[in-house]
Design goal:
With 224 residues, the chain is of the alpha/beta class. The protein is 29% helix and 26% strand. The mean pLDDT is 96. The structure holds 5-O-phosphono-beta-D-ribofuranosylamine.
Length: 224
């Protein structure tokens, strides 16, 4: 991964399998995403995402929450490690912790999260089961700027799929995942190019406020 000094630098946060992290790496490798992935940060040193980063020669910083007196102490320690990597953008991709607003505040407009639901529906866990049980016709994933609340903050873009009559949470999650893997690099690309910005509570595309989240289609992201 070669990059010029002005290439935007990303730090990705993940706690588990890391398939969204790998989707970003693949997008960079194939030339679709003009960023440098500077490091992978995690709260689970033994997780697959950390192993994948190390295998790829990407620096991984993984701290254990239980080594800290409290939640805020862990968050402060983890975020203190960021300076060494000089990131322009932080991407939460399956990072399973709620972060302290105090560490998030300096990153306002420069930190995004991918969440497996059509926000504002179903913040939190178990989103696939909740969408099926509610009888929803569609389910999806959202990439949003991170705010102080859980899975809240202005939504930038969504990918959606139809829920089939015989879907289980597992089949639905499995069908949604490839959409997540297209959605996240596409959104990060727009941010890296300076086309998507946050202005207060408004997401702007090329300077204009977005009335609705962008939608992922075959050809890529489009206005609603
Ligand atoms: C994804 O479904 C993502 O939307 C959610 O957590 C899951 C992480 O999967 N936030 P992976 O670790 O990227 O494979």
């Amino acid at each position: 991964m070669s990059a010029s000094p002005e290439t935007p630098r990303l730090v990705v946060f993940a706690s588990g399998r890391g398939s969204n992290f790998l989707s970003l790496i693949e997008a960079v490798r194939s030339g679709r995403l003009p960023v440098r992935i500077a490091a992978l940060f995690s709260d689970r040193p033994g997780c697959a995402a950390v192993a994948a980063a190390r295998e790829l020669g990407i620096p991984a910083v993984a701290l254990r929450p239980r080594d800290f007196a409290d939640r805020a102490g862990f968050d402060r320690a983890l975020f203190a490690e960021l300076a060494a990597f000089e990131p322009d953008l932080l991407v939460l991709a399956g990072f399973l912790r709620i972060l302290d607003p105090a560490v998030l505040e300096p990153w306002t407009g420069r930190i995004v999260n991918i969440h497996p639901s059509l926000l504002p529906l179903y913040p939190g866990l178990d989103t696939h089961r909740r969408a099926i049980e509610a009888g929803d016709a569609r389910h999806g994933a959202s990439v949003h700027f991170v705010g102080a609340e859980l899975d809240a903050g202005p939504v930038i873009a969504q990918a959606s799929i139809a829920i089939a009559a015989d879907d289980t949470p597992e089949t639905l999650a499995a069908r949604l995942l490839p959409e997540e893997h297209r959605l996240l690099p596409a959104v990060v690309d727009l941010i890296a190019r300076g086309r998507i910005t946050l202005d207060g509570a408004a997401v702007r595309l090329d300077g204009r406020p977005l009335a609705h989240p962008l939608q992922l289609h075959e050809a890529g992201l489009t206005l609603a």
